[in-house]
Design goal:
alpha+beta, six-stranded antiparallel sheet, five-stranded antiparallel sheet, 26 helices, 13 strands, elongated
Length: about 750
Amino acid sequence: MAPWLWALALLLTAAALTLAAVTGRVRINTDVLAMLPKDERRPEVEQALAALAKAGEGRVIVLLRAQADSEAAMDRFIARLQADAPGLAVRHRVSDAQQADWLGFFAPQRGALLTDAQRAQLQAAAPEPLAQQALQGLMQPMGLPRVGRWIDDPFNTLGTWLAERAQGSKVRALGGRLRLADAQGDWMLALIDSGASAFALKDNERIAGALAHARAAVPEAQVLAAGVPLHAHAAATQAQREMHVIGAGSLVGVFALSWLAFARIRPRLLVLLSVGSGLLVAIAATLAVFGELHLITLVFGASLVGVAENYASSHYASRIGQPPAARFALMREQLPTMVLALSTTLAGYALLATTPFPGLQQVALFSAAGLTAAFVSTWLWFPHLDAGSVPERPLTRALGRAWQRWPQLGRRSGAITGLAVAVVLAAAAWRGRANDDIRLLQNTPPALMQDQIDIGRRLDLPSPAQFFLLSAASEAQLLAREEALKARLAVMNGVAGWQAVSDWVPSPTRQLEDAKLVAGRWAEAAPLVAAQLGQPVPQREAVAPPLLTVDAWRAAPVSEAARHQWLGRGADGQWHSVLMLRGVSRDALPQLAALADDTAVRWVDKVADVSELLARQRVRMLGVLAIAVVAVAALLAWRLRAAWWRALVPTLLAGALALAATALAGQPWQLFHVLALLLLLGVGVDYGIFLLAQPSRRDLRGFVSITLAAASTWLAFGLLALSGTPALRAFGFTLGLGIALAWFLTPFFVPDHDPPNH
């Protein structure tokens, strides 16, 4: 390929990316769950999870309490919030008309909506107590809410039913405000909606900034705030900070190494050009395939700076002490070794892409495309763009002396080393343990997590991660199935409550049966009431109450809290809904799972499912790693003949010792430690390949090349160990330590090809 063709391709790619950015087609995703695999075998489960996630998208819940005047403090809080973010929809007041509409929606169903306790009473009670109950409601109207005339609902079944529904929420509308009762004083409640995607970075930044200013406006008040936009903003802020730190750290380190090794400005500029072309192609390829970039990919991609520099270091190291005119011949001579090194690294990323995690697939594509582009830039451009000489420098001379004095493993030293390694590995195996709990990978700021926990506990919110997914052939059957499941939950311990659509819309069969029961019992009690009053009572309308439908309920404001749980008719022709739980104890989880039949009623525990998936993938990737070792060994044997093991064994030892170090440091083994070993296999063997290509201890170029490559790669991935994201931290720690060990161990396995009298 001609160098100018590659330059033209990069210019066109840059123009396309610029156009996409200007037109708003470059989407940055901060959703951690987007990194996890979809459940392709159960699409309705993914639909349910998406519906639950969308219900809270763009919403923030705020609780505020002040010592003196909470109402005035909330008014100041809201005023400052809306001044900073005027587009936000804020609800903290409820008018009398809204409350009347809420109650009036169910008025047509008077006499057809019964609580379980009411139903049991009407079925068992004699006519006399029922008559007394009706008379008491007539003579003492204060108490439970009553909708409409007494004669339309003499037992006040609707008032009792509404009161039970109200008990499902701790929020009350008093004095025109949303309140949460507390022994130490009422909390004021505000619901804030941005109307945008929960992962729109600018909107989340605007909400977070406005909330911070609003908090400052009420210093005397205690304010709790939680919601998906705040978690997304925290994740984006952390990822951007880490991306800058890792990228800047890698770039500064690479430039410093380049200056110390070559003492010229042009190599540093060409390194920047190589890395820049790699990042450009990586971003374009990822957007083309996935349609978006995840922030974790960008953080991981920041480490590409150090890895992409390897090819530039190799090129310049090969030119140390050589005449400038030989640069093209040196590139041709070194090209097969560089291609082999690139192939092993790409193999590591290819194995990373075999996982079912979209996030890791995106990282693999980003890194592989970027490294390939950086390699092509080095190959095509460097000999043309730098015709200067590359003299020896103090750093390269020092590395040359170290290379000359580096010992080789003999039989005795090899046996002692092997015994020491075996002891370390045995200790690690005895102490090590695996823990794939997804909660260990959380990195939410503690203050935000505490607010989330406090708000969830005070409002008694159901968990969106553990629920039942129900399916049926019709709406009526689905509602009846919910009612049957609730009856089984009612006799269980370890479940504080639930939230279901059938709480608000009973099945048609139940509505008809309840209406018939109420009408029949009133027919028995009415003569007794008339006798007590000494006059006939008015007749109730003979027309049965109309059936309450899910569609009518979902269209009304009263359904806001639970309408997202009705998923409707799916592509499979079945109707689906979600029944959510409150206050689930860990001991109750096996019993809840036992209630499912995996067809009509399915138990979904997202935390357990993802943790189990991580465990399965950890075991699977260990198998893939074993296959990869065999494949790399075959590739090395084809290229290096009998010396193949000298390039492979140091990396295997480095990986085993790095994994042992995590166990001895008290870290549980996770999938991300194994994934780091996959990449280490691709990167670590490069050091053996380059040294075996130039094994003479008098030739410092090979050792300088792998030292600069290892240092820059360690800078890249070692800095990931400082990440606040636990997955990246585990990956960076294992890979960073493995790279350092691979660089240290490889020279021991390279024989000295110099004459004995040297």
